[in-house]
Amino acid sequence: MSSSDPSSANIVKFASLDSETQAVLRQATASRLNAYCPYSKFQVGAAVVTATGAIFGGCNIENSAYTVGICAERTALAKAISEGFKSFKAVAVIGNQENVYTTPCGACRQFLSEFGNLKIFISKPDLEDVYVTDLGQLLPHQFQIDQ
């Protein structure tokens, strides 16, 4: 996870969002509480919305061999993909930082890019203000294989 403070132009009030977006943000918030992070103590939750509207949550899972841990975004996508979903509309991410937005790390940004230019909703734990962006803004020059 990386932290950033986006311009106020991309910040909206949670209450102004549609019910599906509110639901995915709530799922990300709930998933964050399941994080296994005994080393960093940095809880992150994420949730993805499939093209059919199904929502899958995920949390970060650390390991004493740090590089084999998995971020919340990839956990949520892996859960959805393992259930047969391959098309997604949006991702929500909630970190445990109260003063900055916790955005997907570089590896997660690339992982998400496999599934298109998804909408990204990022909030602080209070779910008051939501940073609304998309993957193209977070990762403008994605690695892709010409197929």
Spans of 5+ residues with little confidence (pLDDT < 50)?
none
- Taken as a percent bin, the fraction of beta residues is 25-35%
Distance between the termini: 30 Å
Number of helices: 4
What structural class should be given to the helix and strand makeup? Answer: alpha+beta
Keywords:
147 residues, alpha+beta, 8 strands
Describe this structure in words.
It is a single chain. By secondary structure, the protein is α+β, with helices and mostly antiparallel strands. The chain has helices spanning 19-32, 72-82, 106-113, 135-138; strands at 2-4, 11-13, 45-50, 55-59, 88-94, 101-103, 119-123, 129-134. Strands 2-8-7-5-3-4 form a 6-stranded mixed beta sheet. It has a two-stranded antiparallel ribbon with strand order 1-6. The protein is globular.
